Amino acid sequence: MAKFNDLIKGLRETQVWRSIFRHGYAPTERNQSLAISSNFFLHLHPAKVRRHALKFTYTLGLGGLSFFLFLVLTVTGILLMIYYVPSTKEAYNNMKDLEFVISYGLLLRNLHRWSAHLMVLVVFFHMCRVFYTGGYKRPREFNWGIGVVLLLLTLFLSFTGYLLPWDQLAFWAITVGTNIASYAPILGPKIRYALLGGNIVGQNALMRFYVLHVTILPVLMGTFLAIHFWRIRKDGGISGPPIEEVGAEEEAAPAPLKTYGLMGLVKGPTPMVEKEPEDTEFTFPNLVYKEIKYAMLIMIILHVFSFFFNAPLEELADPEHTPNPAKAPWYFLGLQELVSYSAFLGGVLAPALAVIGIILIPFIDRNPSGVGVWFSRERKLAIILFSIFVLTAVILTIIGTYLRGPNWGWYWPWQEWPKH
Amino acid sequence: MRIKNWDFALLGLGSLVLFGLTVGRDTNREWKKYQKRYYQMEYSQAMARGGKGPMEPLRYKINQIMIPGTDIVDRCTTCHLGFDNTEAGFEDNPYKAHPNPYQHPPEDFGCPICHGGQGLATTVADAHGERENWQYPILKSDYVQASCSKCHQDQELIKDAPLLLKGKELFAQYECLGCHSLRGEGEKDAPDLTNEGDKKRHEFDFGKYDSPKLTQADWQFMHLKDPQVFNPDSEMPNLGLSDEEAKALTIYVLSLTEKETPETLIYAKKP
C-alpha cells in the first residue's frame, strides 16, 4: 500500500502529469480555485459561488439539467446517426433494425426519445423557476430573452426529430404541425412550403427536417447556450437576493489607464470584485460534486425508464390513411386546441403574442424587488399574471392530449372512442 | 474539509448494475434460444448417426435474405433454421423444412411475400405480426393460398391452391356480387371488396372478441360463419357455410388485393 502511494505520488511529479494538471492535489484554497480556473470545462464556473446559489431548493438544478439532457441527446443522437438514413424507403426499416438487430439500438432510441421529451419539460420548468424567483430582472433582461430563444430551439429540435422515424405518428404529427404554421397571413403557406420542400410531407420534408435536426438547429443551440452561460457570468452569476452595501455598478472603480491584469477591465457586479467573500463557497468541490451527482442520478433514471419503456413506433407512414384524430406532438397540442377554435387567432396570433410577451417581461415588469426568493410577496401581480399564462398553457395541452378524440370531439378518458 | 463519498459510490454502483442488466438483456436475445436448440438437435442427430467429438461452439448469427431490386429484408430464417433441412427429425416448427423448396426458392422470394408477417423482426411476437405496429400478421397453414393469386393465374393454381379456387367458385355460387361490388362489378348495397385483402387489422371491428391474437383471417372466417357475430345490426345473410366452405371463401376474400407485387419477384424464377 505504501508503495502504491509512492507510485501515485511519483506519478504526480512527472513532467507529463504536471503539464496536464497545473495545480496541486491537496485541498487548499489555492488548489480549489485553480481546479476551476485552470480547467477548460470547469472554467465556465466562477472559482467561488454565492452560498445562496448552491441551494438545491433555489434553482432545483433545472438549468444544469437542461444542459445535461442536451449533452445526452447529442451523444445518443450522434450514435443514432450512424444507423439512420433519411430516406422514406429506409428510415422506418432503420427503426426496425435498431430494435431487432443492432446491439443496444433500441436503448439508444429510447434514451434519445425520452430525454427529448424530458428536455422540453425541464426547459419550460427552468423558465418558470427563473420567473418565480425574479431572475430576469436587471441586469439579466437580455439573458432572459436568450433563454426564450433556447426554449423555442428546444421545441423546434424536438419537432424536427419527431418526423425522422417515418411512422404514422411522425407523418401526421408533422402534417398537423406544419399546417398550423401555414395559418400565418401571407408568409404562412410559404413557410410551410419551405419547411417541407413541397406541399406534402415527403422525401424532401424528411431531408430538410433531418438537416435541421442534426446540423442547423444543434449549432444554433450550441451558440445560444454559450451566450446564455457567458451572460450568466457577465451578469454577476446566477440571481440571488441583492448584496448589501458595496458592489453596485456605478461604484466599480474606473478602468486604469494602464492595466496589468484582466481584473482592471472587469465591469459590473461580478461577485468577486470588491466584495466580501463571506457568503461565498468554493465551486470545487461544493458545486461541481453536486452537479456530477445530479447528472448521475438523472442518467440512472433515464436509463431505467428506457430499459422498461420503448419509444413509440407506429405503422409505416401512409399518406392515404389519416388517423382520426391526427395530433401534433404533445407540446403543440395546446396550440392545436386553440387552432380548433380559430386558425389565425389560435395558431398564429396567440403564440406570437405569447412569445413576444414573454421576451418583453423584464422590460414591462421593472419592479426591482423580490429577486432571489421564490414567490416574493412584493411581486404579487406579476406572479398571478404569469401563473395564469402557465396554467392556461398546461390546461390547453392536457385538453389536447387527453380529452380530444375523433374529429377533435370532446371525450373523457373513460369514454370510448367510436371505432369508425 | 472532508468529502463524504458514499453517495458517489452508491450512484456508481447503480450505474454499474444497470449497465450489467443492459448488456445481459442485449446478449440474450430471443432468437438465440431458437438457434441454440437447433444446433443442439443437429448435434445429437449427428451423434446418433455415429459422429464423434464435442459440439462446435455456437455460431449465433442473424440470417437474412435480401432480395435485389426490392427493399425486402427477411430475417425469418434466423429462427427457422431448418427451412432447407429435409433430414428426419426436423418435421416440426420452428425448424420444419419448406415443402418443395425449388418451386419458390426462399433466397429469391423471402418469406412474407407469401406468408405475411414482419420479415425485419427477430422476436416471435413481432415477426408473426402480433403487434399493433404491424398490420399484416402471418397467414397460417392453408390461408397462405390467399397469396398465390398475387402472381399466378387461375389455371396455374389447380394443383397447389385448391381452396382459393373453391372460394372463388363459392363467391360466384352464392352471388356475393348481388350486394357487394368487386373491381367495378356487382351491386353497391354492401361494402366494396376490391381491396378487402389489403385492409389492415385495425380496420376491422372485433367487437367483444378484440384481442391482438385475432387476425384478418379470423375476422373473415367468424364473420362468414355468423355475419352478426361482431355487429348484430349487419344485414348480411347467414349462408349456412360449413367450416371448409367458410375457410375457402375467407382465403378468396383475403386474396383480393390492389397492391402491386414487385416485378423482380414475379419474374424471379421465370427462365
For the structure shown, list the relevant keywords.
heterodimer, A: 420 residues, mainly alpha, Cytochrome Bc1 Complex, Chain C, 16 helices, 2 strands, B: 271 residues, Cytochrome Bc1 Complex, Chain D, domain 2
Write the layout of secondary structure elements.
The complex is a heterodimer of chains A (420) and B (271).
Chain A: H1 2-13, H2 15-20, H3 29-37, E1 48-50, H4 51-54, H5 56-59, H6 62-81, H7 91-100, H8 105-132, H9 141-163, H10 168-181, H11 187-196, H12 203-234, E2 280-282, H13 283-308, H14 333-339, H15 343-364, H16 380-402
Antiparallel strand pairs in A: 1-2
Chain B: H1 6-27, H2 30-48, E1 65-66, E2 73-74, H3 106-109, H4 112-115, H5 124-127, H6 162-173, E3 181-182, E4 185-186, H7 216-225, H8 243-254, H9 263-266
Antiparallel strand pairs in B: 1-2, 3-4
What does this structure look like?
The complex is a heterodimer of chains A (420) and B (271). In chain A, helix 9 packs across helix 10, helix 9 packs antiparallel against helix 12 and helix 9 runs antiparallel to helix 15. A two-stranded antiparallel ribbon of chain A has the order 1-2. In chain A, 60% of the residues lie in helices and 1% in strands. By secondary structure, chain A is mostly helical. Chain A has one domain: Cytochrome Bc1 Complex, Chain C (Up-down Bundle). Among the domains of chain B are: 94 residues, no CATH class; 93 residues, Orthogonal Bundle (Cytochrome Bc1 Complex, Chain D, domain 2), CATH 1.10.760. In chain B, 34% of the residues lie in helices and 3% in strands. In chain B, strand 3 and strand 4 form a beta hairpin. The radius of gyration of chain B is 24 Å and the shape is globular. Chain B starts with 5 loop residues before the first helix and ends in a 5-residue tail after the last helix. The chains are: A mainly alpha (420), B mainly alpha (271).
